[in-house]
User: Fold endopeptidase La from Metabacillus litoralis.
Amino acid sequence: MKGRTIFRTSLFLAIIFLITTFIKLPYYVTQPGMASELQPIIEVENGFDKEEGSFSLTTVRFGRANPLTYLWAKINDYHYLHPLEEIRREDETDKEYFNRQLHMMEASQESAIAVAYKKANKKVDFTFNGIYVDGVIEDMPAFDVLIVGDRIYSVDQVEFQTAEEFIEYVSKKNVGDEVLINYERDGEQREAKIKLAAFKDQPSKVGIGIGLVTDLEIDVEPTITLKTEEIGGPSAGLMMSLEIYNQLVEEDITKGYKIAGTGTINAEGEVGPIGGISQKIVAADHDGVDIFFAPNEQNNSTSDYQEALKTAKDINTNMKIIPVDTFDDALNYLMKIEDNN
Assistant:
């Protein structure tokens, strides 16, 4: 009889547990992820494969909160709760958010390749393929016409090579003017006429209400293969550029250290801030990283670097936190340190 009672109680608790996991709360939970080595996912043709140490990107795990993960985040350090609107744009679907992260990753990846190849004095050429829509603003003219992932080829029969050129062209027009947009969706060519309107938060600025990312193909020698299908967002840009460069040159700039970090990178080699750096510090420390590069943001008192220092002190890590504003900052640091072999 007692055994039957225990079984029923256990079954009841198991059912309650399963039910609560399917209840979605209006929050995302983020927590420390891991440090993942880049060499296995980046391969330069006939590149130098001699790393005594390693370069790693760092990740933050996140997912939609349910009652159990919500409570878990409340009682655990470096587990954070974020309202949906902090992660996704207003009215953005999960698919649109995923597509936006992939496009940001692609742009960051191309910048990382360009920076590394130029620094190694290798061939770099670009082919521009239009402009990706990576966001659409509600109550603006494009909202009922374009969706995230559409690729714009021309406006008023004028072809643009960058998102900046598109924005400059449209910004010279007036409220109520109409533009002809030629674009592609799921392999199908489309066109639409869209009127311009003023932005609610910037009445002096006009547009159709979309966010844009330049879509370009990069042509380099030697060729390079990146297996980054599972990586979203731009925050691995700096670390990818270092791994690529290390495969292009004969010297091993890891010098036997486990090196991680985070930060966006643009085609000029400038490193930008990211989100979740405290959690990435925890992840890197857990994986035994020796050196961590953090965006310095030109010595800003609230920079990622400053936050990283506070976290490093809090968790009492021996990992060295190094501030960087550019790819060259990171490279110069590595060239000056002693070997760890």
